[in-house]
Amino acid sequence: MLENQVPSNSQVIKCFVNGAYYFSKVNRMPVNVIKEFLQLLSSSNREKRNIIEANIYARLDAVEKYKPKPVPDFSSFDEIPF
């Protein structure tokens, strides 16, 4: 990549998180960190990659969960009152 920082953090986050999430758009990931991480994974054997993945998911699981506001259910409103 020509950039020093990842253009969209959400593209990286989607690799590990399935569902609703929020993140700071101010802090962007350096490309060299992603590159070094990919080099670590590619140079590791299957067992070590499994340990790395398990560690990532354990750390993500420890983060406070985001609960989106529930969408109101308007199905009980059969008729408009006016």
Question: How would you characterize the overall build of this protein?
Answer:
By secondary structure, this protein is mainly alpha-helical. The protein has a domain at 9-62. Helix content is 43%, strand content 0%. It is built from 3 helices and no strands. The protein has helices spanning 9-13, 31-43, 46-62. The longest helix has 17 residues, at 46-62. The protein is elongated, with a radius of gyration of 20 Å. 0% of the residues are buried. The mean pLDDT is 84.
What's the arrangement of secondary structure elements?
Layout: H1 9-13, H2 31-43, H3 46-62
Please report which band the strand proportion falls in: under 5%, 5-15%, 15-25%, 25-35%, 35-45% or over 45%.
Answer: under 5%
Total of helices: 3
Stretches where pLDDT is under 50 for at least 5 consecutive residues are: none
Strand count, sense and closure of the main sheet?
none
Quantity of strands, as a count: 0
- Category from helices, strands and their pairing: mainly alpha
| Global shape | elongated
The level of helicity is 40-55%
What's the multimeric state? single chain
Distance from N terminus to C terminus (CA atoms, Å) equals 59 Å
Average pLDDT works out at 84
Topology as a string of helices (H) and strands (E): HHH
Radius of gyration: 20 Å
Structural key phrases:
single chain; elongated; 0% strand
Give a brief rundown of this model.
The protein has 82 residues and is mostly helical.
